[in-house]
C-alpha cells in the first residue's frame, strides 16, 4: 500500500447524504463518500445495494432527491454525463455503453477526435487507438465495428476510452466482470500508474481478490445505505463479507463443494456428444462429451472460442461441420428451438442484448423460455406464473420491488439471476451457462453455484463457462481447456490445479 | 450480437444492380443509354436527391422525417408568393425560404427530443401542417416569372453535346457536402452514434439533444433547398406539389443500403437509391405501352426484384 | 411511311372519367395506326415532366399531355420546342409565358361546366321564385384545377340571385366514400335546411345520394342534386330519379386528338383551341340518352 | 389514491383527448349529441362517427400488432382496395322481379365472394410476412412494394372502373343495423374481443412484446420469431381485408383508385395516439381503438363546424401536436412543476 491512503489530503470528490428513490425502492438513503486524490477506492456491496445508482447520481445520469456533490470543495450538480466529463469525472458504466455500429477506434475517440484542418484525422485516430489498445495487449483491427468483437473486448474498449480523458476522477463500475486474470492484471497496472499521477479512482467489483489487490480504501454499502468506510489494510476478508451481508456467514473459503463429491464416475453416461463441431471463423473442429449429471467446466482465455462453442451446441449459430448426438441419437439444430426441444438451455453472457427483455416484468422474463417451450396456445395460468416467479425470486434471492417490476430497473446482478431462473424453470437436461456469475456478489455467487450443483446431483448436466479460473476449478467435475478456438485438453477433477491450466493455456499443444 | 449486415457491401451491390438495370434498359430500348438520358436522371431527380440527402441523416440517426414533401411544397408556395406578390429580390426570397425550412425542421427536432415524442408522429403532423399552410397562402397554383428563377430553370450547362441543369449541380454539391459532413466532422459521426445507440451516445458524453435538433433542422433545410430547386424546375408554387415524395426519399435511402433502424449506411447511397428509382421510371416511359395500373405493378415488381436480389446477395456475402 | 409516333402523358387513373379518357385515346391511336407512347404520371407533375423529357429523348413526332396543373410548364415545353416537337394539350389548359409553346389545346372548360351547373339551378329556381334555396357544395380535391374552376364558374352563375345561398362547402376529394361521409355530416349539422347539393363530380354525388337516403330523405326530390361529368352511374341515378342533372365533361378526346396530331405533322394549320362537344343532361332526358353512353 | 391511479392509467390521456374533442363538439355543434330513432335504428352524429371509424379501428387493431413487433405495414390501403374489389367484382348482382317481388341475385354466392376477398387479403399479408420474416427485408420497403403494386393489381382487376354492387344483402355489412346499432360496430367489437382474448388467453401477447423489444433475446429463449412476425402481417392484412369489405359495402361500390387511400397513415396515427410506441414492444389495443375514434371525431368535427376545406390540414396537425405533447411524460413533469411553482 502506498502511504498516500493514510494521509488524507482534501478529498477531490465528496458526496454528502445522497438519497435517491425509484418507484417502490429507496435505492440510496443518505449515502456519503469521500474520494481522495491518488487513491483507489473500492465500492462493495451485494447486488442491488445501490452502487451503480450512486455512480449514476454522481455522474449526472440521475438527479439525487437529496444530498450534495462537492468537487474540490465546490458544490456541483452535473446534469449529464457530458457535464460530469467536463468537471473531470470519467466513467465506465456497468452495462457497456458504446455504439455497436461504430468502429472500435471511433468508440474510443468519439467526442474528442484528433483533427486536421478542421476535419477528423482518421489515420491518426486509427494509429492512436491501436496503440492505446496495444498497451492493454489487445491487438485487433480497430477499424472494424465494435459489434464485431465479443463483450470482453468491448469492455476493454470502454476502459480505454475512459483512460483517454485527462480526468481528475475515474469511475469504473464492474469493469472486470467479463475479463480474465491476464486482462485484470493489465488493467490494474494501468490503474496503479494513474494512481501515482494523483488520480482518484472509484472502483466497483464483486471479486474480493481484486479488491485487495488494488484498493487503498473500501466503502461498503448495504441496502442503499453506507455501512462504513475502511482502509483496505485494516479489514479482513471475512469482516468485509460480513459487513456487506450484514450477518455472520461463511466466506468463499468454504468447504469443497458437496456436489463434486457426490458425482460418481459410475453414473457417467454421455448425454451430449459433439464430434468435429466447427464453424468458419469461429471454431475449429472440436469434440465434446457431456455426461449426465456432470458439471463440465470450459476454461480458456478471452476469445478462445468458448462462447462460440456454446452457441453452436445451442443452435444459436449454425455449425458448418460436425455432428451433435443427444442420448446417442444424432440431431441437427437449426435454431435454439430445436436445442430447447432436446432439453438444452443456454444462458448467454451478454445479458443486455441476448438475455433480458428490458421492458417486460421479472415474471414475464422468468417464464419466457418455459412458455416458449409449451407453445403459444397453452398459456401458463397467471397464478402459476406468479407462483413460479415468487418461488425463484426467493430461491435465488433476487432483489426486486415486486415480480411485476420491469427487469430493466433491477440491478445488474439481479437481472442476471432472473435470466438464470428463466432456464431453471424449464428444468433442462443440459444447461449451458456462459459466465452466469458475471456481476453477481460473493455470497450470491456461492448460493447460485450451490444451487446449480444440487441440480447436477439430481441428474442435470451443466456446461459451465467462466473467466474465473478458480471458480471453474472449484465446481467442475471435469474441465475442458480451450485455446485458439479449439479444445486444448481435458482434465478430470483433481487432476488439475490453476497452474496446470494456465500452463495448458499458455503452452497449448504440447500439453494437449 | 453478431455483425450481420455490412453497409459497405450492400452499397456496392446496389451500384452493381443499378448498372445492370441501366444495361438492361439500354438493351431493350434504343436510345436509352444516351448520355442525355442519364443526365436527365439527374436533372429530373435533383430535388429528390437533395431531400434524400437530408433524409439519410435522419434515418442514420434512427429517426424518420415524413414532412419533407410538404415542406418542399410549402417552399415553392412561399417562393412564388414572395416573388409574385411582394416582388422581393430572388436571392432574398431563397434565403428566407431556406431559413424557414430550417426553422421548421429544428422545431420538429426540438419537439422530438425534448418531449421524447416519436419522430414518425411529429413529422406526420408536420406534413399535415406544411401542406395545410400552403392552402392558407393560396389554393391556386402561382406561376413564377421572376427572371432569375426563369434563368435558373432554362439555363442548360453544356457538357459535350449534352447538358445539365444548375439544379442538378446544386444537388450534387449538396450531396458532396453531406458526405463530407457525415464522414469528416464530429457532427456527422455523432449522427451515427445516436443511430447506433442513443442511450450510449448520451452516456459517452455526446450532445445528443443538439445533434438531434440539428439533424431535423438539416433535413428541413434540405427539404427547403429541394423546394427552391423544384421552383426552378416547375416555375410555380403549388400546394399539391410533390405529394408522396417523402416515401420516394425514404425508399431511395433504404435502397441505397441504409438501415431504417439507424446507424448503418452511407449518405452516398442516397444517390444510388435516387438513380435506381429514376431509372425504373425512365424505363417505363421508354417502354410506353404500360397502362396506369401496369405502371404501378411494374414499379412494385422492379422494386421487389431489386430489394430481393440486394438482400440475397448481402446474405451470401456475409456468409463468406 | 413510318407510322406517326405520339408520346402521351396521362395524369393518372384516379377516376372512371380518367380511365375513359385513356381508353379513348388508346383506341383511337390503334384505329389510326399511330404508335402511342403512353406514360402514367400517378398524379404528379414532376413525373409528367420526366415523361415529356424522355419523349424528347426518344424523338417522338408529337407530344400530347393532360397537365396535372396549369402552371410550371415553360421549361420543359421550351425544350420540346427546341427539339421541334409539337405539343398538344388535352383536357386541361396550361399557363405559359409564350403561347407558341403548344400548338393546340383540346378539351373542356371547367369554369364553363361550373357555370352551366349554376345556370341550370338559376333556371330551376325560377319555378319556385319565392323559395330560398340553401346549397351545400361538395368540392373536389383542394387546390386541383377542376375543383377551383367548377367552384368559380358555379359561383359566377348564381352570383346575381339572392335566393340562392351556399351554406356549406367542404371537400369530398372526388370520391364516393368522402362524398358520403361529408354529406352525412352536413345532414346532421343542417338537417332539413338543405335544398340543393352541388357536387364537383358524379362520384361524390352518388356517395352523397346514399347518405341522403340513409337520412330518410328523398334525393332528387327533397334535395335537388346537381353534378358534373356525366358518367354511367350518374345516368343510372337520374333514371332512378335520384339525381336531377349532370353537366357533361367529355373524356372521349381520342379521335379528335389523332386528327389534330396528323394535321400538325402534315403541316396543316390547326386551331389553337378545340372545344369538345359537351351538353347538359337533366334527368328528363337520361333514359333516352343512356344507351348512347360509352363510359 | 384511486384518483391518482386513474390519472396515471395509460389510457387516461387518449381518453381525455377524445373527451375534449367531444366537449368542443358539444359547445360548437348544436344537436351533436342528439340521437333519434329513425327506421327502427339509432340515428345521429355519434352513430356516424362510430360507423365511419369502424374500418379505421380494424386497420388500427391489425397495425398495433405489427408495430408491437417493431414493424410497420404501409400496404394497408392497397389491401383494402384489393379485398373490396374482389368482393365487389364477384358479387356484382342485379335485381330481378319475381312474381312482382324484387329479388336480389349475386353473381357469386356472397359467402364465396367474402371468402375470396378475405383470401386475397390473407395472400397480401402472407406476401408481406414472407418478405419481412422470411427474407428479412426492412418492413417499410417490404410493404412499400405491395403498397405500390397492390393498388395497381386492384385497378387491373377492374380496368380502372368503379365497380358498383347491386346485391342488397351485401350492404348489410357496412350500412346495416342490428338491434338499433350499425352492424359494422358488431364486427369491430368481435374482432377486438377475439384479438384481446387471443392476446390475453394465449401467450401471443407476451411473445409479440418480447420479439418487439429484443428479437435476439427472444430467439435465444426459444421463440419462433419468424413465424410470429409472419403471423402479425397476415393478421394485419386480414383486418385490412375486413375493413375493405366494410368500406365497399358502405358505399355500395368498389373504387380501386381511391378505396383506403392513405388509410395506413391514419392507422399508424391512431396506434400512436393510443400510446403505443413505434419502437415496438408494449402496446395497447384499446388505446389504438381510442386513437381511431379521436381521428374520426376530429374529421367529423371539422365537417360539422363548417370550417373551409383549406384549413382542414392545419387544424388536424395542430390537434395531433397538442395530443402528442400533452401525452408526453416530459410535459407532465413540466406541468407538475409549474403547478407546484404556483402553489
Ligand atoms: N431505473 C431504475 N428504476 C427503478 N429501480 C431502480 C432503477 N435503477 C436501479 N433501481 C433499483 O435500485 C436498487 C439499487 O440498484 P443498483 O443498480 O444501484 O445496485 P448495484 O449495487 O449496482 O447492484 P449490482 O451489484 O447487482 O450491480 C435496486 O433495488 C434496483 O432495483
Ligand atoms: N484478445 C483478442 N484479440 C483479438 N481477437 C479477440 C480477442 N479476444 C477475442 N477475440 C475475438 O473473439 C472471438 C471469439 O470470442 P468468444 O466470445 O467465442 O470467446 P470466449 O472464449 O467465449 O471468450 P469470452 O467469452 O471471454 O469473450 C474470436 O473470433 C476473436 O476474433
Ligand atoms: Mg451495479
Ligand atoms: Mg464468452
Topology (elements, then pairings):
The complex is a heterotetramer of chains A (512), B (320), C (295) and D (343).
Chain A: E1 13-22, E2 25-35, E3 40-45, H1 51-58, E4 66-71, E5 74-76, H2 81-86, E6 89-92, H3 104-109, E7 115-116, E8 119-120, H4 122-135, H5 151-164, E9 169-173, H6 181-196, E10 200-204, H7 208-214, E11 217-222, E12 225-231, H8 237-245, H9 258-262, E13 270-279, E14 283-291, E15 295-300, H10 306-314, E16 321-326, E17 329-331, H11 336-341, E18 344-347, H12 351-355, H13 362-374, H14 382-395, H15 412-424, E19 430-434, H16 442-457, E20 461-465, H17 469-475, E21 478-483, E22 486-492, H18 498-507
Parallel strand pairs in A: 3-10, 3-11, 6-9, 9-10, 15-20, 15-21, 18-19, 19-20
Antiparallel strand pairs in A: 1-2, 1-4, 4-5, 7-8, 11-12, 13-14, 13-16, 16-17, 21-22
Helix pairs in contact in A: 13-14, 13-15
Chain B: H1 7-28, H2 35-60, H3 68-86, H4 90-114, H5 119-137, E1 142-143, H6 147-154, E2 157-159, E3 162-164, H7 166-184, H8 186-196, H9 198-203, H10 208-234, E4 236-237, H11 245-255, H12 269-287, H13 292-319
Antiparallel strand pairs in B: 1-4, 2-3
Helix pairs in contact in B: 1-12, 1-13, 2-7, 2-8, 2-10, 2-11, 2-12, 3-4, 3-5, 3-10, 4-5, 4-10, 6-10, 7-8, 8-10, 11-12, 12-13
Chain C: E1 5-10, H1 16-32, E2 35-40, H2 45-58, E3 62-65, H3 74-82, E4 87-90, E5 104-107, H4 110-125, E6 133-139, H5 145-158, E7 164-171, H6 176-190, E8 196-199, H7 202-214, E9 224-229, H8 232-239, E10 245-248, H9 254-265, E11 273-275, E12 280-282, H10 283-289
Parallel strand pairs in C: 1-2, 1-3, 3-4, 4-5, 5-11, 6-7, 6-8, 8-9, 9-10
Antiparallel strand pairs in C: 10-12
Helix pairs in contact in C: 1-9, 2-3, 4-5, 6-7, 8-10
Bound molecules: adenosine-5'-triphosphate (ATP) (2 copies) and magnesium ion (2 copies).
One adenosine-5'-triphosphate binds at residues 138-140, 149-153, 282, 300, 302-308, 349, 467 of chain A.
Protein name (chain B): Sugar ABC transporter permease YjfF
Organism (chain B): Duganella aquatilis
Membrane topology (chain B): Multi-pass membrane protein
Molecular structure report:
The complex is a heterotetramer of chains A (512), B (320), C (295) and D (343). Chain B is mainly alpha-helical and 320 residues long. Helix content of chain B is 75%, strand content 3%. Chain C has 295 residues and is an alpha/beta fold. Chain C is 42% helix and 20% strand. Chain C has ten helices and twelve strands. Chain C starts with a strand and ends in a 6-residue tail after the last helix. The mean pLDDT of chain C is 90. In chain D, helix 3 (45-68) packs antiparallel against helix 11 (225-251) and helix 5 (110-134) runs antiparallel to helix 11. The two termini of chain D are 20 Å apart. Chains B and D meet through helix 5, helix 11 and helix 13 of B and helix 6, helix 12, helix 14 and helix 15 of D. One adenosine-5'-triphosphate is lined by residues 138-140, 149-153, 282, 300, 302-308, 349, 467 of chain A.
